[in-house]
Amino acid sequence: MPESRRLALFDLDHTLLPIDSDYQWADYLARTGRAGDPVEAQRRNDELMHRYNAGDLTAQEASEFMLSLLARHDPVDLAAWHEAFMLEVIRPAISPVATDLVRNHLAAGDLCAVVTATNHFVTAPIARAFGVPNLLATHAEYQAGRFTGRVAGTPCFREGKVLRVEAWLADQGMTLNDFQRTFFYSDSINDVPLLEVVTDPVATNPSRPLRELAQEKGWRVLDLFDELS
Fold first, then answer.
1. 18-65 pLDDT, tens per residue?
2. Has residue 73 been placed in a domain?
3. Distance separating alpha carbons of residues 62 and 112, to the nearest angstrom
């Protein structure tokens, strides 16, 4: 039996962050001349973002462009660029209301994890910046000292988020049913599969489709960043 009787899961982009870290990372690489043709890279980035928001993107399509950006560069360079990306783009976007949400769950003794479709390379430093001790993200395959551009294992996307959460808990000898309450905070219609299996789904800064669904199902709606205006 887990020490904590509650589980708190957080999507990242447009949930804890008011921006999309995946989109912003690709944009950062394009702006700094590290994504090939910058115009084409930004066009492709915009296209994928639009399709993701519409709920019309497969896991393969979601990952192949973003992971290809990792595969074209040496990991040492990528790590240095990511530090600059954190300083320039991510840290200014981390708000007190979002960090307080996480801290309140941590202070209550809840088992906490970020569960995001964005790849582990991009999101691991961001999860650490929020103080979340566990991260479930899409893993970029890494062989012979380089990223390959392919996904390793199950993408943390749509139904894959449920599978990844269940596998993570199973590794610790637990299931969702071991917790009195399970929370999942998300903005995206793509996260409905995981929202439907927790006891406390929270549509957080929800997209229009998710807001409508949350109102239909009676889910809690949390407009986190309205507190900043």
1. 999 999 999 999 999 998 888 888 888 888 888 877 777 776 777 778
2. yes
3. 25
Residue 177 makes CB contacts below 8 A (sequence gap 6+) with: none
Query: Residue 98: enclosing H or E segment and its boundaries?
Result: helix 96-107
* Amino acid residing at 202: V
What three-state secondary structure class fits 74?
A: coil
Closest CA to 49 of 114, 95, 118: 118
74, part of any domain: yes
Assigned domain for 1 exists: no
What's phi and psi for 86, nearest 5 deg? -60, -45
Question: Domain tally for the chain?
Answer: 1
How many CB atoms are located within 10 Å of the residue 116 CB?
29
Domain of residue 136, CATH code: 3.40.50.1000
- Residues with catalytic roles: 11, 13
pTM, two decimal places: 0.92
Residues 6+ apart with CB under 8 A from 64: 149
pLDDT, tens digit, 9 for 90 and up, residues 146-155: 999 999 999 9
* Residue 59 included in any domain: yes
Which of 53 and 228 is assigned the larger pLDDT? Answer: 53
